[in-house]
Amino acid sequence: MTRADLKEGAEGVGPLAGNEAHARVESESGVPVFFDSIAGAGSKDAGFGLQLTGTKGIVDIRGDQSPPTHLLAGNPFAPTTEPRAWVPITSAGPGEAEPIVDVALLVSSHGASGRDLLAAIRENRAPLCDVRAGAAVIEAISGVFESHRLNGQRVAFPLATRVNPLSLL
Q1: What is the full DSSP assignment across 55-116?
Q2: Mean pLDDT estimate for the chain
Q3: How far from chain centre, in Å, is Cα 56?
Q4: Residue 20: is it exposed, middle or buried by C-beta count within 10 angstroms (0-12/13-18/19+)?
Q5: Side-chain half-sphere exposure of 142, counting CA atoms within 13 A
Q6: 46 vs 119, more confident
């Protein structure tokens, strides 16, 4: 992408370009994290999601579905002829009925985070997702932009660039 491809994003984060992003981030512990976002990919029934893949299975998290979390048990790297099924995970555990009334509202409408914020104010503590976590997310997004600006180079955190790196194209 070049400066000519940039347009002001609807999210208020400054210039953006294109309609997809692909990134690899290495966590502090060395675990690789892969991120892919493609506008209009898949179906409208499956919005934003997160998959955690490990040697014992895959956990799929979809905040806009009920229940929001499912488990596909078994090593995804070891093919099997046995069928595997996605099992819902509730607050009571995998395959258990959800004991919390309106749990879907707590997740999809951000009710749980709102409740935690109010509790944090009452209890004089940081919310579970505090300003440091928010800053880390912004840093990661900016890191993807900065790596692109530097032709795919690996970038370290904290970033030296403290503006939207795409504005420097």
Answers
A1: TTEEEEE-TTSSS-EEEEES-TTS--SS----EEEETTEETPPP-STTHHHHHHT-HHHHHH
A2: 87
A3: 21
A4: exposed
A5: 20
A6: 119
- H or E element in which residue 54 lies: strand 50-54
Predicted pLDDT at 18: 86
8 A C-beta contact, residue 140 and residue 25: yes
- 105: tokens are 């509202």
CA-based nearest residue to 165, from 65, 150, 157: 150
Q: Are 108 and 64 in contact (CB under 8 A)?
A: yes
SS3 18: coil
Q: Which long-range contacts (CB under 8 A, 24 or more apart) does 27-34 make?
A: none
Between CA 58 and CA 1 the distance in angstroms is: 34
**Residue range 103-119, pLDDT digits in tens:** 766 776 777 888 899 99
Task: List Cβ<8 Å contacts ≥24 apart for 85-93.
Answer: 86/60, 89/59
| Cα gap 113→53, rounded to integer Å | 25
Show Cβ contacts of residue 116 under 8 Å, excluding neighbours closer than 6 positions.
127, 128, 129
Tokens read off for 56: 């014992």
